[in-house]
Amino acid sequence: MILAVVNNGVVTQVTPNVDPSLYSQYAQNAQACIDITSTLPQPQVGWIFTGSTLVSNGVVGTLITKLAFRERFTTSELLGVYTAIPTYPLLQIMIDNQAVSTFIDLSRSDTISGVDYLVSIGLLTLTRATTILTTPPSAMEIYQG
Questions:
Q1: pTM greater than 0.90
Q2: Of 67, 75, 88, 90, which is the most buried if we count CB atoms within 10 A?
Q3: Count of helix runs (H) and strand runs (E) in the chain
Q4: What is the 3-state secondary structure (H, E, C) of 8-40?
C-alpha cells in the first residue's frame, strides 16, 4: 500500500510499499494516514488535506523513473536518436547520463536542455518536446525513491 502521511493539514510524506500491518504505527504519529494506492493523480508531498480529501497544492511532481522518461519517446524518435549518434556524439553522452542517474527530473535545466537539443538537431518537434517535458507524471511514472 502507498500511504500519504498528513501533519498540520499537509501531506508531509508519501511512503510506498507499506505493509498494511504497519498502518497503525504510521497513524499514531500523524494527523492522518491515507491509503493512496489507487488514487489518481497520485497525491504528493505538499498536497492539502481538507479533512476528507487530498487536494493538489498546484505543484506537479517532476521526478519520474528512467524507464518512464524513455517511454515518453516513440519508438521512431528513439530510433532517430540512436541512428544520429555517429553524427551527434553528444547524444551518447546524454544517454549515458540517463543510464547512471537515479531518476529523471523533468524540471532540471539539463533535462530541458537535452530535450531542446533533440529539437535543435531535428529529432523532435517543439510540440513533442513540450509534451515530453510537461505532461504530468502518471502514478506509474512517479519516482518513489
A1: no
A2: 88
A3: 6, 7
A4: CCEEEEEECCCCHHHHHHHHCCCCEEEECCCCC
